[in-house]
Amino acid sequence: QVPLVESGGGSVQAGGSLRLSCSASGRIYSSSVMAWFRQAPGKEREFVALRRWSRDSTLYADSVKGRFTISRDSASNTVFLQMNALKVEDTAVYYCARGSHYATDVSSYNFWGQGTQVTVAS
Fold it and tell me: Which pLDDT score is estimated for 1?
């Protein structure tokens, strides 16, 4: 297994920015896909963004396109989610996940972090 540990969550005013980090221990294979999901209270976990580990290929949910950016640092085995122009509706627990398919469904990802809370106040 490749444990994933998220950090960087917190509280911010609407319009502000946060950067989440996801640190992975062990080797991440070049074929891996790293993704961010989020889950708001009373709602299902939803896809936010993904990228292939070894290629600059990314995909975003429509709700975050143009505001969020997913990136990675291969030297530190870390994936980032830069979140700008945050909205109240972005409030959720954010999860990092690793899988092997370029997919947006929760079931395609085998490994998950513990989640980090993001709260956006109006």
Answer: 57
Q: How do strand 92-99 and strand 109-112 relate by DSSP bridges?
A: antiparallel
Beta strand residue intervals within the chain, DSSP E: 4-7, 10-13, 18-24, 33-39, 46-52, 58-60, 68-73, 78-83, 92-99, 109-112, 116-121
Distances (CA, A) of 109 to 31, 63, 69, 83, 116: 13, 21, 20, 22, 18
Whether the per-residue pLDDT at 2 is higher than 70: the answer is: no
The answer, yes or no, to whether residue 64 has pLDDT greater than 60, is: yes
49 - beta bridge partners? 36, 60
The CA distance from 117 to 122, in Å, is 16
